[in-house]
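Could someone model adenosine-5'-triphosphate with this protein?
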Amino acid sequence: MHTDSIVSTHNLSKRYNNVWRVHKVNLYVKQGEIYGFLGPNGAGKSTSLKMLLGLTKPTDGRVTIFGRELHSHRSSILSQIGSLIESPSYYGHLTGLENMRVMQRLRGVPDANIKEALQIVRLEDQKHKKVEQYSLGMKQRLGVAMALLAFPKLLVLDEPTNGLDPAGIGEIRELIKSLPGRYGMTVLLSSHLLSEIDQMATSVGIINDGELLFQGKMEVLRAKGQSSISMKTLDNSAAEKLLLTRGYMPMNRKGRLHFEKLNDEQISHANQIIVESGIPVVRIEEHQKSLEDIFLELTGKERSL
Ligand SMILES: Nc1ncnc2c1ncn2[C@@H]1O[C@H](COP(=O)(O)OP(=O)(O)OP(=O)(O)O)[C@@H](O)[C@H]1O
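Reply:
Sure, complex below.
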C-alpha cells in the first residue's frame, strides 16, 4: 500500500481503436513532490493525465487521489486540483483579469487569490490587456495562473513549457519549483524533454508506448548513470581477445574497448595486461552516462527526446 501517495493509479489503461495507448500504469505521486512524467511524443502522457482529471474514462484500472477513488468522489477531488492540459482555455476578447474572474466564479475563491496568482506568474502589469494580444508565453502564464487560482493541493500541468522561449521556460521552471515550498502544493507535470524534468522534478516516471518503464527518485535515475571506462589501444581486437581470456568483459565498439563497473585496481590491471603483451595503450577515459543514455537504454530505442 502506498498510503502516503497523493495520486496513485492501479493498472491504469486506455485503449483507442484496439491499441493500448496507456497500459497497466501504476503511478505514485507523494505529497510535496514535483513529479515529472517523461516520455516522447505520443507515449501516452496526456492520455494518462486526462484520466487522472476525469476528462477521459479509463478502459481499465483505477485512479486514487487524496486517498479516495476518483470514480466515486469525482467532484470533491477535482475541486482540489488545478490543471493545465494542452492549450489553456481562455477568452481572447477578454482581458487577463476578466478571464481570471470567469475562473473565480467557477471556483468560488476570494479576490485576493486572483491578485496573488497574477503576481506569481508576473502578469499583474498586463492584466488589463486583451488575451488575444498576449504573447504565447504570457498566455501560458495565464493558464498557470488559472490553474493556481484556488491554490489547490495538487497541480497537474501537461507540458507547461511547450512553445515558450528559453527565458519563458526558465521563468515557469523557477515558478513551479517554488510551489511545494511556498504553498505546500504537489505538482505533477509532463514533458518530452529530459533536461526539463532533470531541472525541475524530484521524482520521475518514464513512459514509452503506453508503458511505465521507470519510476522513482531523480537520484535513483541519476545513479543509473554510473560511469564507464573506455580504452583505446593500437590493436583493439587483439587486446579484447587477450582480456577475455583474463576474465574481463570489454565491448569493442567505435574504436574503443568499453568496460562497465571496473574499480581502479581492475583498470590498472587490465591496462598492465595489455601493455605487457606489447600492445600500446593510448587512451584511458571515464564517461558519465547522460540521462538521455539511460533513457535510450530503458526504451531500447534510438529516439531523440
Ligand atoms: N481521442 C483519441 N483517439 C484515438 N487515439 C488517441 C486519442 N487520444 C490520443 N490518442 C493516441 O494515443 C497515443 C498517446 O497520445 P498522448 O497524447 O497521450 O501522448 P503524449 O505522450 O501526451 O504525447 P504528446 O506530447 O505528443 O501529446 C497517441 O498515439 C495518440 O495518437
